Amino acid sequence: MPGLWRQRLPSAWALLLLPFLPLLMPAAPAAHRGSYKPVIVVHGLFDSSYSFRHLLDYINETHTGTVVTVLDLFDGRESLRPLWEQVQGFREAVVPIMEKAPEGVHLICYSQGKHGLFEMALPHVHAV
After folding, report:
1. Residues 69-95, mean pLDDT to the nearest whole number
2. The pLDDT of residue 112
C-alpha cells in the first residue's frame, strides 16, 4: 500500500518548485511573435517551381506567416533563353516583393537562378 501512495503523490521537490513554474515560462520555446522576412525561391537550369513544393510546405509549417514566393519563370527549356532576358524577368518579379520588405528578403536560388538574381540584385546584397 505505501507504494501506491508514492505513485499518486508528487515528490516534495516538485511541490516546492511548483510556485516557481511561472518564472520558467518565458524561457520555454514559443512561437515567433515577430514577422519573418519574405522568402524568394528561384529554380535552376531545366527545373521548375513545382520542384520546390516540399520546401514551400516546410517553410509554411515551420515559420507560419512567412510570405514565400517560388518564382515560376523560365521553366524547363525556357531556362535556355538568353540570360539578359531572364534577368529582366526576374527583376520584374522580384522588385515589387523587395519594395514591400524594407528589412530585406531571403533568397534561395539554385544554379542559373542564382546567377540571374545576383546580376539583378548585386547592389542590394548585404550577405551571401
Report:
1. 87
2. 64
Cβ contact 97:68 at 8 Å: no
Cell triple for residue 39? 522568402
Rounded to whole angstroms, the Cα distance separating 115 from 43 reads 11
Q: What is the overall mean pLDDT for the chain? A: 74
Sorting pLDDT into bands at 50, 70 and 90, what band is 95?
confident
Dihedral, 73, 95, 70, 38 alpha carbons, nearest 10: 180
Question: Taking the CA atoms of the chain, what radius of gyration do you get in angstroms?
Answer: 24
Closest CA to 70 of 97, 94, 91, 49: 49
Whether the CA torsion 59, 61, 62, 66 is positive or negative: it is: positive
* Residue 115, pLDDT above cutoff 90: no
Nearest residue to 90 (alpha-carbon basis) of 59, 65, 68, 69: 69
Question: Residues 67, 77, 46, CA angle at the centre, nearest 5°?
Answer: 55
Query: Which set of grid coordinates corresponds to residue 62?
Result: 515551420
